[in-house]
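[job 0412] stage=fold_complex status=start
inputs:
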Amino acid sequence: QVLLVESGGGVVQPGRTLRLSCAASGFTFSSYAMHWVRQAPGKGLEWVAVISYDGSNKYYADSVKGRFTISRDNSKNTLYLEMNSLGADDTAVYYCARGVVVIASYFHYWGQGTLVTVSS
Amino acid sequence: EIVLTQSPGTLSLSPGERATLSCRASQSVNSNYLAWYQQKPGQAPRLLIYGASSRATGIPDRFSGSGSGTDFTLTISRLEPEDFAVYYCQQYGSSPYSFGQGTKLEIK
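[job 0412] stage=fold_complex status=done
writing structure:
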């Protein structure tokens, strides 16, 4: 079965960098676009970024453009999100999600999420 | 950027009643690429509906989606106790793939 497991969350100081990982299994990872979605405590869902199956296309929410970088390693079945210049507004549970093959997709599968807390 | 507005913010109903949730887009959603999710506390969202009206695998038929263009609806025909949760719509027709702010369905 499809399994997505995020890791790398934790407490980080404002302005610092953090890298999240999402280990995928149960499907052919290299065939699917992958997304990051976040949810601030007590708030709604916010789409963050997407990467195409081969890494050649990437799109970002305006709120993270220029600060976050999505990437993938298809040999390791792993998705990444590097987050720079973190601020309090970036505090959230970060989910990786998979939909259909193409970038424009709903999200059929979600990980359990990893909590990022930006605080001094 | 497409802004999705969900209404009402909170819906108070009893088990057995019918629930109607609305999602309105600030501009037409390409190809009716509109999905609905259910989220319970401490859990990841669960896909219910995609393509505005197609039920995801394993979703009971009391859940149905309808609409096109800018106006979409999620209907739960007869509420079960496990249906009380927060519901989100999402458009995936154009980046950024935005979500609505959510409708909380609570027990009356």
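[job 0412] summary: Chain A touches chain B through 22 residues (CB under 8 Å).
[job 0412] exit 0
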